[in-house]
C-alpha cells in the first residue's frame, strides 16, 4: 500500500538575502522559501527561513565632551585680566563622526582699578633707564 508521508517536500527556491537589518555595524539578514506541496500530503520539516549575521562599515562615533568646568579665578588681582574654563574629551570621534569643538574658553575679567602707591612713577622711571 501507499504511505503518504514518504512524499518529498516540494519547496520553492530560496529568495535573495534581505538587506542587512542595520545601516552600519553588525546586523542580521534573512531569506525565505515557500512550501509548494499541499500540507495534507504529510509533514514537511524543512526550514522555510534562514538568518545570518551581516557586517557593514562601522557606524560613525561623534566626539563626546564632559561639561564645562567652573570659570577660573581672574589671573590678575586688579585691573583687566582673563579667566578660562575647560572641558575634557570623553570619546574621540571615529569612522567619520563629528569632530570635537573647542575644549578651552577664555573671557575677560575686570577687577577694581589698580592703585598707584606713592613713588610708583619714580620706580618705573628708574626701571626704564
TrEMBL record:
Pfam families noted in UniProt: TSP1_spondin, TSP_1
GO cellular component terms, A-Z: extracellular matrix
Protein name according to UniProt: SPON1 protein
SMART domains per record: TSP1
Record PROSITE patterns: TSP1
Protein origin, superkingdom: Eukaryota
Domain Spondin-like TSP1 residue range list: 63-114
Keywords: Disulfide bond, Glycoprotein, Signal
GO annotation terms (biological process): cell adhesion
Upper taxonomic lineage: Eukaryota, Metazoa, Chordata, Craniata, Vertebrata
Amino acid at each position: 500500500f501507499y504511505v503518504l508521508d514518504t512524499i518529498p517536500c516540494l519547496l520553492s527556491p530560496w529568495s535573495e538575502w534581505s538587506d542587512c537589518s542595520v545601516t552600519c555595524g553588525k546586523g542580521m539578514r534573512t531569506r525565505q522559501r515557500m512550501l509548494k506541496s499541499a500540507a495534507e500530503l504529510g509533514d514537511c520539516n524543512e526550514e522555510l527561513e534562514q538568518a545570518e549575521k551581516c557586517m557593514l562599515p562601522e557606524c560613525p562615533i561623534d566626539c563626546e565632551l564632559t561639561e564645562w568646568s567652573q570659570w577660573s579665578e581672574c589671573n590678575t588681582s586688579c585691573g583687566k585680566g582673563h579667566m578660562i574654563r575647560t572641558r575634557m574629551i570623553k570619546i574621540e570621534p571615529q569612522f567619520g563622526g563629528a569632530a570635537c569643538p573647542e575644549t578651552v574658553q577664555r573671557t575677560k575679567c575686570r577687577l577694581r582699578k589698580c592703585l598707584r602707591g606713592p613713588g610708583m612713577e619714580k620706580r618705573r622711571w628708574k626701571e626704564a633707564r
